[in-house]
């Protein structure tokens, strides 16, 4: 039995590193982390609390799901801010909805076709 299991990172394939960095680093504000040398291009970004997003350049990949079924999510204070960013930067999104549990959420598409959710599920202090 594993005594302690800690989630560390999510790795996603991407096609265009500069475009992906513009999206995740420049628009969403994720900090770039030091990355060891590999035999493929990519970048590591910080998600807070020691969590990381690893972007891995893969020319011949296709997004597994072009729907919200395959996505990852961030909790933020104001989902409206994300909608404003989408409109400012011409990013595809599904408008804000309120779930039956009261959580507000918005889904956006990154430059590679991955869906990213932003929600208000955790109260901010």
Key features of this structure:
125 residues; 4-stranded mixed β-sheet; 2,3-Dihydroxybiphenyl 1,2-Dioxygenase, domain 1; 18% helix; alpha/beta; 2 helices; 35% strand
Biggest sheet: strands, sense, closure? 4 strands, mixed
Q: What is the CATH homology-level superfamily of the largest domain?
A: 2,3-Dihydroxybiphenyl 1,2-Dioxygenase, domain 1
In what range is the share of β-strand residues? 35-45%
Give the N-to-C terminal Cα separation.
Answer: 36 Å
**Helix amount:** 10-25%
| Helix count from the secondary structure assignment | 2
**Named CATH architecture of the largest domain:** Roll
CATH topology term of the largest domain: 2,3-Dihydroxybiphenyl 1,2-Dioxygenase, domain 1
Report strand order across the widest sheet.
1-4-3-2
What is the ordering of alpha helices and beta strands? EHEEEEHEEE
Report on this structure.
This protein has 125 residues and is an alpha/beta fold. It is 18% helix and 35% strand. The chain folds into two domains: 1-61, 2,3-Dihydroxybiphenyl 1,2-Dioxygenase, domain 1 (Roll); 62-125, 2,3-Dihydroxybiphenyl 1,2-Dioxygenase, domain 1 (Roll), CATH 3.10.180.10. The protein contains two helices and eight strands, in the order E-H-E-E-E-E-H-E-E-E. Strands 1-4-3-2 form a four-stranded mixed sheet, with helices on one face. The longest helix has 11 residues, at 17-27. The mean pLDDT is 91.
């Amino acid at each position: 039995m594993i005594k302690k299991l800690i989630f560390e990172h999510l790795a996603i394939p991407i096609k265009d590193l500069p475009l992906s960095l513009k999206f995740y680093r420049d628009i969403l504000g994720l900090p770039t982390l030091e990355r060891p040398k590999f035999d493929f291009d990519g970048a590591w970004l910080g998600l807070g609390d020691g969590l990381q997003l690893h972007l891995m350049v893969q020319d011949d990949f296709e997004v597994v799901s072009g729907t919200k079924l395959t996505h990852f999510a961030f909790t933020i204070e104001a989902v409206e801010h994300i909608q404003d960013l989408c409109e400012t930067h011409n990013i595809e999104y599904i408008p804000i909805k309120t779930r039956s549990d009261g959580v507000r959420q918005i889904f956006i598409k990154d430059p590679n076709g991955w869906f990213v959710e932003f929600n208000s599920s955790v109260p901010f202090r």
